[in-house]
Amino acid sequence: MKYRNLGKAGVKVSSLCLGAMTFGEADATSFMHNVGSDEGTSHAVLDRALAAGINFIDTADVYGQDGLSERVLGRWFTARGTRDKTVLATKFRFTMGEGANRTGASRYRIIKCCEDSLRRLQTDRIDLYQIHMQDITVPEQETLRALDDLVRAGKVLYTGCSNYAAYRLGDSLWTAKTEHLASFVTLQAQYSLIARDIEREHLPLCREHGLGLLPWSPLAGGFLSGKFERGKSAATGTRLGEKERLARYDVERNWTILDAVRAVAAEHDTSPAAVSLAWLLARPAVSSVIFGARTVAQLDANLAAADLDLTSDQLAALDTASAYDVGYPYAFIAATQARW
Predict the structure, then answer these.
(1) Is 129 a catalytic residue?
(2) Which among 162, 177, 269, 279 is positioned nearest to 220, based on CA atoms?
(3) pTM for the structure as a whole
């Protein structure tokens, strides 16, 4: 396992981050129903990940009903004594509980969410506390001030954001700088060979300001695992097992990308999943790639990415296969620079 700085922060994290979204058997009220792991399996995955050198775990209060994923993690920390061996990341923002303040990023709610997560996780601190999505109904200064207070209190060590528009992230970084508040050190965003949209503005912004990029859904919901074939139904019990979910990926560009991934995997005698993760690890500003594993076998298959070095030719082939329309003004800028 290799380790990298968490953005501009001094703490070191494994290049692969174990996502805990599927930990715990969620009931029918949860969006994770039928795709989770029971607690025993979740703890076995965590044991194996730690033994393999993964020291970075990402979860959120909204994963599973009533903070199920956090509670599963908390019991693992207590049973195994592993809290100080891990860098723990969790998130707040989405709906938890009832009432007018059941969602959002107000000071009132951030403090409550943090205390609730600390209790569920059975810990005295959150190493990386992330806002799960921007909240345009709350001034960014209020959100940042509340997070800064938690940092000063020692309950949070670093802060990050997820699913932010680039303009909002730029405004947040400027506000933190001018108001002398704790600033985000990471951006967690959807990023994969299939979804490269953040390369337009977010990636340059992260590089300019030293934010560590934490890609989520690096396998595009499992599509890049190589389990799926053109014209065939997805297997049941998978994230893409429902016909309408697979249909979102059933376009020629995505199959072309998967063909290129499979070709590179064959050259390394490894899995398409490992190649897809390794491509992300070679991208600028990436601190760690978040992947999920419902079983120890899935975990072991993905671990191969940590030591997989793709050649420049292979990276170029994957870049070409996954090329996308950058749109205006980026295409205009590129063409103008090349001509003038």
Answers:
(1) no
(2) 279
(3) 0.94
